[in-house]
Write a structure and sequence with these properties.
single chain, mainly alpha, Lysozyme-like_dom_sf, lyase, Transglyc_AS
Length: 183
C-alpha cells in the first residue's frame, strides 16, 4: 500500500512539473517577439494578435530584414505594391526601405490582413489571398476550383499557398494554446 502511494505521489509531482515546464519550453519554440507592436496594430485593425503572430512566424520567422526572391519585405513579407496601397489607406507616407522596420511593417501588414478578412469574410480564403493574391483567390472561388474551406486545401492550385494556409492555421492554433493571455 505504501509503495502504491509513493508511486502515486511521484506521478503527481511529475504531472505538476510537466504542466509547469512544457508550456514554457513550447514558448521557446513558438516565441512572440514584437508582442506589444503586434497587439497594438492587431487590435487597431480588429484582429486577433495571435493570428498576426502566426502569419509573421510563417512569413519571416520574425526576422525583420527578411526579403523574398519576389521582392516581399519585412516581418509580414509585404510586396511593395501592397505596402503602398496599405500606407495610402492609412494616410502614411510610403517608403519601401521602412518595410524592414518592425513597427511600420506590422502596421501595414495588419491593415492588409484585416482588409482581406473583410473582403473574403472568412479566414481561410483571406490567408490564401494574402499569399497567392486576391485576384487568384477570387478566380478560384468563382470558377469552383476551390470552395474556400480549410478542409479542402488540396483544391488550391498553388502548392506554396496551400502550405502557407496550412502552416498559418496550425501556428495560430498553437499560439492560442500557448498564449491564452494575449487577446
Amino acid at each position: 500500500m505504501l509503495k502504491t502511494w509513493r508511486r502515486y505521489l511521484w506521478l503527481l509531482v511529475l504531472v505538476a512539473l510537466l504542466s509547469f515546464l512544457l508550456p514554457r519550453a513550447a514558448r521557446l519554440l513558438y516565441p512572440l517577439p514584437y508582442r506589444e507592436i503586434i497587439v497594438t496594430y492587431a487590435h487597431r485593425e480588429g484582429l486577433d494578435p495571435l493570428l498576426v503572430a502566426a502569419v509573421t512566424r510563417v512569413e519571416s520567422k520574425f526576422y525583420p530584414r527578411a526579403q523574398s526572391e519576389q521582392g516581399a519585405r519585412g516581418l509580414m513579407q509585404l510586396m511593395p505594391e501592397t505596402a503602398r496601397l496599405a500606407a495610402g489607406q492609412l494616410g502614411l507616407p510610403y517608403d519601401p526601405d521602412r518595410l524592414f522596420s518592425p513597427e511600420y511593417n506590422l502596421r501595414l501588414g495588419s491593415w492588409y490582413l484585416a482588409a482581406l478578412l473583410r473582403e473574403f469574410g472568412n479566414l481561410t480564403p483571406a490567408l490564401a489571398a494574402y499569399n497567392g493574391g486576391r485576384g487568384n483567390v477570387h478566380n478560384w472561388l468563382e470558377r469552383g476550383i476551390w470552395d474556400g474551406n480549410s478542409r479542402n486545401l488540396s483544391q488550391v492550385p498553388f502548392p506554396e499557398t496551400r502550405e502557407f494556409v496550412r502552416q498559418v492555421l496550425q501556428n495560430y492554433r498553437i499560439y492560442r494554446i500557448l498564449y491564452p493571455d494575449v487577446r
